[in-house]
Specification:
Structural class: alpha+beta
Oligomer: single chain
Number of strands: 13
Distance between the termini: 15 Å
Low-confidence stretches: 225-256, 336-410
Shape: elongated
Mean pLDDT: 76
Strand content: 15-25%
Order of helices and strands: EEEEEEEEEEEEEHHHHHHHHHHH
Number of helices: 11
Length: about 400
């Protein structure tokens, strides 16, 4: 799924029996509608966004044509555009001429009222409950499908002469008060979370990992390490683990450069400069990448991907041969000794701390844990997107295309 939701019709995926007008939101049927397989369907350019609680779109029927054989719904990316949504595998639909709902077949079930000319019908997907619902002229028609797992692209099918419609993905106000529904659902979700019981040791560990991963070591030092005791054996074990991990926090004062280094490494990687991150680590902690082969391999791999994203195929291949391959081959040769490549990645795996040389300072292990978390979890970059042009960047272009208002974020 995409970070951004649908904004228009994908004209490359539109049926040849449909004419899409300028703006890529209005369309009309140009066929005869005499055969079950001469439906004219259109599909949105993108699926619902991953950061929405509810994905939603609306369709205004500007003409019902001869039969009003119009259906809207959701489909997978490979949906057959010569069929109605809901009447082919990987799709769900609600049809106007009979008010029935369809899922993956042509049988259908009774669902809601018929719809036709000048009606505004909508389709929504609740990502929290995995349910699809439909609306008509601002009224919620109830849940139509449950346990949704694959269909996220808005789609509409027309199948009689004269039919025409216009889509709204949120650029214009919706007829149905979707914002109110989202607020209600978010409130329900928040209340359900507040009722969950989570052990204090578990919460403590989650916070600790977050602070460590993002390099907030000054805050980590202030994190309370006193966890209430419990008679439960599992809880007591968690308390012991947390107390042992918190013992390392006393060494944060010795890591005056660690926080700055962690943050600098993260900034370099977010700006697609993994080689810069490697140079920084080698200058501040010369032995780190020599001992942590997993971290070095991940950084070198990320550097190669950055070259590919820039279109430098030759450079990426040469870099892989010269820098990455020798590391991987050398490690493969050592696989039998260490139970496979990257058997110990510098503290990331249980028991690695004990495998290191005796007498190593806890502070060194703390540095390794912090930086390895950064190195082994690099951000995934879209080849067509330069992270330096993101919000807040000094290199951001003066103008950016506005994100479509096609739903509210979670």
């Amino acid at each position: 799924m995409s970070e951004f939701g649908p904004t228009e019709i994908n004209t490359e995926r539109a049926s040849h029996l449909v004419k899409v007008h300028k703006g890529k939101l209005s369309f009309q049927y140009t066929g005869k509608g005499n055969h079950v397989h001469d439906v004219g369907s259109v599909q949105a350019n993108r699926p619902f966004a991953v950061n929405e609680l509810i994905g939603y779109f609306e369709l205004r029927v500007t003409s019902a044509g001869h039969r009003g054989n119009i259906a809207l719904g959701l489909t997978n990316q490979d949906f057959n555009i010569m069929r109605h949504p809901g009447k082919d595998s990987g799709s769900y639909g609600y049809q106007g001429d009979d008010g029935r709902k369809f899922e993956d077949n042509g049988q259908g079930e009774t669902y809601g009222p018929k719809f036709g000319a000048e009606d505004v019908v909508g389709c929504g997907l609740h990502f929290g409950t995995r349910e699809i619902f439909f609306t008509k002229n601002g009224q919620h028609l109830g849940v139509a499908f449950r346990s949704i797992s694959h269909a996220y692209y808005p789609a509409v099918g027309l199948h009689s002469e004269g039919e025409a419609a216009t889509l709204n993905f949120g650029a214009q106000p919706f007829i149905f008060p979707i914002a109110n529904l989202i607020r209600e659902e978010e409130s329900k979700f928040s209340n359900s979370i507040s009722r969950l019981h989570v052990e204090g040791a578990t919460l403590h560990e989650l916070v600790r990992q977050f602070l460590l991963h993002h390099g907030h070591l000054s805050t980590l030092k202030l994190l309370p390490c006193v966890v209430s005791k419990s008679h439960d054996k599992t809880a007591s074990s968690q308390v012991l683990q947390v107390e042992q991990l918190c013992a390392a926090v006393t060494h944060v004062d010795e890591l005056s450069t660690c926080q700055a280094t962690c943050q600098a490494v993260r900034r370099l990687m977010e700006n697609s400069d993994s080689l810069g991150a490697i140079r920084l680590l080698e200058s501040v902690y010369p032995s780190f990448l020599k001992e942590s082969r997993m971290a070095k391999a991940m950084l070198l791999s990320q550097a190669m991907m950055e070259q590919l994203a820039r279109g430098d195929l030759r450079g990426a291949v040469a870099f892989a041969k010269e820098s990455l391959a020798p590391l991987l081959l050398a490690d493969a040769a050592r696989g039998d000794e260490e139970d496979g490549p990257y058997a110990c990645d510098g503290g990331m795996r249980e028991g690695c701390a004990e495998a290191e040389e005796p007498g190593q300072a806890d502070a060194d292990d703390y540095v390794r844990r912090a930086i390895t978390l950064l190195a082994t979890c690099p951000p995934c970059h879209d080849p067509g997107h330069d992270p330096r042009s993101g919000p807040g960047s000094r290199d951001a272009p003066a103008t950016r295309e506005a994100q479509p208002a096609n739903g509210t974020r979670r």
